[in-house]
């Protein structure tokens, strides 16, 4: 079942639900975001003083949509290229549009759905329905959709795909190479073979966690010096830069010229999920504005740090994030 037509009326944004308190982003950078695995997210919560009265929240989710949501929160504009279909896809697409995201859809047979229960104070996954694999036709259409709409963007963001979606690593490598050939700036939030394929394409800012550096065989341990040397090897291989998030520790940034640590003020974590995607969005917005990489990473570090203090994934207020970024410290290595 295809998603709703682009011409159908769209519900207005609900900032109190989506966390989108930023002003409209007409003058902000345009980010074209690849979201291979959008999902429908249903969460059940209860107020601490009334645990018997559950509250149900429904949002569009998945890595690419969380990134795009934060792009809009930071005053940017987001065009999202993603597959949607089935009942869950129709609902997820409508919710994404209600948050101000401009969708360019590829038709598929369904999208994943997650039902999560927070009533006991922790994240308990009650139901996980996975998306069917994207067939060759869907993959071809998604590739072409991203390639064409990225031509007007100030920055492109590539987010990954779970193995069950059947998207091969070379999909990301070919797309990165073609976008670079068109002069596009690219921020990629990928891991494993998908990250390796993009690294071989060259000219990309790769955001990756220290765990993913280890799991992907890029680094032998998580010491700063080891991660720095591994990042430098990736840059020598063609990447523009490597940004290694390190949980609560300072983020490592490696370029061809130098390396530095970027540290946000410490905060108490309420929900760590989605913080990395908020960091990616901040880096993309800063890059799209033409800022130096270290300033873009400072914005990303602020967005990620403040996101862990909230329950909403990919949410935040632009004024708070930009003020917080002013307190992010940079230490040269």
TrEMBL record:
UniProt keyword Metal-binding present: no
Annotated Pro residues bias: 1-14
Key words of the record: ATP-binding, Kinase, Nucleotide-binding, Transferase
Species for this entry: Georgenia ruanii
Family the entry assigns: Belongs to the carbohydrate kinase PfkB family.
Region (Disordered): 1-27
GO MF terms held by the record: ATP binding; phosphofructokinase activity
Pfam family, one: PfkB
Cellular component GO terms held in the UniProt record: cytosol
Organismal lineage: Bacteria, Bacillati, Actinomycetota, Actinomycetes, Micrococcales
Carbohydrate kinase PfkB domain ranges (all copies): 53-315
Protein name as it appears in the record: Phosphofructokinase
């Amino acid at each position: 079942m295809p998603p709703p037509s682009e011409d159908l009326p769209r519900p207005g944004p609900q900032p109190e639900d989506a966390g989108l308190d930023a002003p409209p982003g007409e003058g902000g950078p345009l980010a074209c975001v690849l979201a291979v695995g959008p999902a429908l997210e249903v969460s059940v919560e209860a107020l601490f003083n009334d645990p018997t009265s559950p509250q149900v929240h429904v949002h569009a989710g998945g890595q690419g949509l969380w990134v795009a949501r934060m792009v809009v929160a930071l005053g940017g504009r987001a065009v999202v290229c993603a597959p949607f279909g089935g009942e869950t896809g129709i609902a997820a697409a409508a919710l994404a549009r209600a948050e101000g995201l401009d969708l360019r859809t590829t038709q598929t047979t369904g999208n994943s759905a997650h039902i999560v229960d927070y009533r006991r104070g922790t994240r308990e996954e009650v139901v996980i329905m996975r998306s069917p694999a994207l067939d060759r036709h869907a993959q071809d259409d998604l590739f072409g959709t991203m390639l064409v709409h990225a031509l007007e963007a100030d920055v492109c963001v590539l987010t990954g795909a779970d193995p069950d979606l059947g998207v091969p690593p070379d999909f990301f490598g070919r797309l990165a190479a073609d976008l670079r050939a068109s002069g596009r700036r690219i921020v990629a939030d990928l891991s494993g073979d998908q990250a390796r394929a993009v690294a071989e394409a060259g000219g990309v800012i790769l955001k990756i966690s220290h765990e993913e550096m280890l799991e992907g065989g890029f680094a032998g341990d998580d010491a700063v010096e080891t991660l720095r040397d591994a990042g430098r090897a990736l840059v020598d291989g063609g990447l523009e830069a490597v940004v290694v998030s390190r949980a609560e520790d300072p983020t490592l940034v490696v370029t061809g010229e130098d390396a530095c640590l970027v540290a946000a003020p410490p905060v108490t974590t309420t929900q760590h999920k989605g913080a990395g995607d908020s960091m990616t969005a901040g880096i993309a917005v800063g890059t799209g504005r033409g800022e130096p990489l270290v300033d873009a990473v400072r914005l990303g570090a602020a967005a990620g740090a403040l996101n862990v203090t909230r329950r909403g994934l990919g949410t935040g207020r632009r004024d708070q994030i930009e003020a917080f970024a002013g307190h992010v410290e940079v230490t040269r290595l």
